[in-house]
Amino acid sequence: MQMNNAFAQYNNNKILTASPAELTLMLYEGAIKFCNIAIVGIEQGNIQKTHDNIMKTQRILEEFQITLNHKYEVAKDFDAVYSYLIKRLREANVKKDAAVLEEVLGHLRTMRDTWKEVMQAAKKIPV
Q1: Is residue 1 included in any domain, yes or no?
Q2: What pLDDT is attached to residue 8?
Q3: Can you tell me the distance from the alpha carbon of 19 to that of 118, in angstroms, rounded to the nearest whole number?
Q4: CATH code for position 69
Q5: What domain count does the chain have?
Q6: CA distance to 30, 105, 107, 125, 126, per residue, from 58 (Å)
């Protein structure tokens, strides 16, 4: 029990001390994790597990969408991608379709990997 508390506190501190870029990366990682769990739920025939984890993935994407800064032109592109992925997640949830989740997962991994590259490039820029 005490180990669980220590782990929870570590994770909480990790979030509280993370930069905005690191938080974004954590959210992408979370979306990927929940999407994977939803796929496992489909394979196990566990409808509730599938639904819960699709909804977690969807909420992360909705948060990304809500926090877009629309003063930048690229926000329109991200908004369209997030809308598409949310639409696909809804379809996957209704049909319990692992193939659709695999598609979403591929996009999430690409976005996460691109975000990592952006973070690395930003570290190289002198301030």
Answers
A1: no
A2: 66
A3: 14
A4: 1.20.120.340
A5: 1
A6: 11, 12, 13, 33, 36
Model pLDDT for residues 96-110, shown as the tens digit of each residue: 999 999 999 999 999
Cα dist from 67 to 14, 15, 52, 109, whole Å:
21, 18, 23, 20
Would 13 be classed as within a structural domain? no
pLDDT tens digit string along 38-67? 999 999 999 999 999 999 999 999 999 999
CB 119 within 8 A of CB 21: yes
Instruction: Give the structural domain span for 113.
Output: 20-124
Summarised one tens digit per residue, pLDDT across range 1-33 is 666 776 566 666 666 778 999 999 999 999 999
Q: Are 85 and 61 in contact (CB under 8 A)?
A: yes
Structural domain includes residue 106: yes
